[in-house]
Give the backbone structure.
Amino acid sequence: MSADELSRSSTESQRLLRSSSFEIDDLEAAGGRHKYSNGLANGHSRWKDPLKQSPPWRRPKCIWIALVVAVVLILGSIMFLQKSNIIEQIRPGPKEPQGPPPQSPPPPPPSPAPRIPEMDKFEKPAEFKIIGLIFFGRPPNVAILDCYLKKNLVTNGGFLDEVHFVVNTDKKQDIKYLDKLVKTEKLYRKIILPELGYNSVWKHSVEPEHMYIKIDDDMVFFDDYAIANIVYTKLSRPDSFNVIANLVNSPETGWLHYHFGAIRSYLPELSPPSEKQSAAALGPKAWRASALPTWNETGEMSFPVTMDKSDDGSVLEADRPEAPPFKGHRWLPLPEPREAQIYKTPMAKSEYNPYGPDWKSWALAAQVHYSLLENIEKDQLRLYRYGTSSPSSSEGVWDTALGRMNINFMAIWGKDVLDNVPFEGPDDEHEL
C-alpha cells in the first residue's frame, strides 16, 4: 500500500472513530437504551454520517423524550419540596429565625359548672343595663370578691355593665378602703345613702329600667357562668319576681346539695398532727382534698352539732364538745367506704329549714366548704345542679314556692323592687 493510500486509510479510520463518538453522545443525551446494547463504544455498529443528519436537538423523537424527562424531574422536585415542607411564601427581607417547637399546653384548671345547654348561643342583652349591686361593709371579703367582679365586667367579656358599691357602714376606715377600690376600675361606682338600712339601700340605689345582680359582700367564689345563668333564667321566666343563684353554705340549698350527692364525708381532726405535714396538706395554701390525710382518730366516728339558737354568731367555749377541736385544725376525709359513712358527719343533721342546723352550725358550714373545694378539684361542680347531675341536663330550677331563701346572689328588675319599697320591716330577705 502506497503512502498516499496509507494516508487516505488513516484519515478514513479517524473519520469513522469520530462519527462513532458523535453517535454515542447523541444516544446518551437522549437517554436511549442502545447505549449499552449496540456496541457503539468500540464502533462496531452501523452509523450515520453526522454531516448528513440533523442536529440532535432538532430530531422529533429526541425532543419528546427530553420533554418527558424534564416534566418527570420537575414533578419529582415539587413533590419532594412539598413533602419536606421547604416550599413557603417568599417574603421580603431576611428570614426570621424559627423559635423552639411549641410545647404542649399545661393541664387546664378545674372547669366551672356546666353551662346551661340552652345558653350556648345566649349573648348579653343590649337593651338594658345589667348592674352589680354590692352591699358594702366588709373590706376583707370584698378584697376577694373584687377579682370575680372585674372578671365579669363587659370590658372583660362578662355581663356586668357597671358595679355599684352601696355603702352600708359608717366605719371610716372601711369607707377609705372603698374609695381606693373604686379608683381601680372605671366601671365601679360608690353609692352614698342618706341613712343606713336595707330600705334605704333599695330605695336610693336602683333605677326601674335596669336589671340588678345583688351580691352580698361576703361572696368569695362564683363560677364563670353564674351571672349569665341567672340573667338567662330571669328573662326566660318573666313570671318570676327574682332568680337566686345556686348558693353554697345556705340553709335550704345545703339540704338540697346533701341529697344531690354534692356533700362529702368529712370530720375534724381532734388533735394536732404528730408527723410533719407538707405545705399542700397543712397551711394557708392547703385546699386540695387529694393532699389531705385520711381521718384516723381513735374513738367514735362522729362530731356533735350545736342546736342552740343562742350560739348563733358567738364563740363557743373550748370545753364544749361541739366547739372547734383546736385553732388551725383541718377537716379530713373519712376512710372507705367513705360516702356510706356520711350519716356519721354533721351534714346528716341538715334540714330544709331557713332557721335550722345549716344556718346555726359552724360544723355544717365547714363540711360544706371542704366539699366544695373537693368538687372544684375533681371538676364535679355539676353535682350542685338542681334536678339532675348530668352535664347535658336542662336548665334546672328549684321553685321555692314562696318560701324563704337567702338572697345573697340574685337577679331582679329595678322596677319590681321600687314597686315594693318601703318594706314593712327591716328584713329585706323576708320581703323579697
